[in-house]
Amino acid sequence: MSARRPPVFIITTAALASLALAMMADLGLLDGPQLRRGAVNAAVFVRELFPPSAQPLATLFDAMLETLQIAYVGTVLGFIGALPLAILATRTIFGQPITGPVRLLLAGVRTVPALLWAVVFVVAFGLGPAAGAMGIAAYTLGYLGKLLYEVFEGVDSEVVDAVWSVGCNRVQLTRFALLPEAANQILSQLLFVFEYNVRASSIMGFVGAGGIGFHLLGYLQLLQYQHLFTALLLTLGVVLLIDYASGRLRRLVLPPATAGRA
Known about the structure:
By secondary structure, the chain is mainly α.
């Protein structure tokens, strides 16, 4: 009797594990002395974070407000651009000659991270929160556009067919079928993207695009670790609060099972 061959799952897992180990070795993550030095430095860094300083709180509150403004304005501008592009990318409304190029455009835009978009707009607008808001808007356009055309294509086909059958055109189909049917999902995805944008806006200051990231980078460079810890705690608290509020709102507008996946 011939021996049983190892299952494909085991072979694949072993190959991926071997590849991961090889890459870890190449990156120095299996270098014992380097790991020990890193652990010691990390312990020193953590120790110097305490206690957090209350001195920069007034400055940090203003910077956090600017961060939220960047995220909000960027989300709104991105949504304004994403909605019509998502409609053009919906295959239940338009054919491949239109949906194909629009989807390619959205894919290209979201391939570039928000931080790199901010660098581009720093060159265009100069240093400051305007560049950060435009960077967030550009990434939101690509990312939210994809989410929205998937929402539109998930609308019940019977509803779409019924609207087509009475002789409605594409504008009427969008107005009377897609947008009303998908309204709650659109709101849910918009809230989800805003959550992400608040986190992304927190580091826009690393490239001079405004927000609390400017202070995070400055405290790190000046070795003001207690100030840095205060800024990190404030950022964490605001992000968690927004995540919680957004999650509650999504559960209000969506059925429980759907809200849990959004």
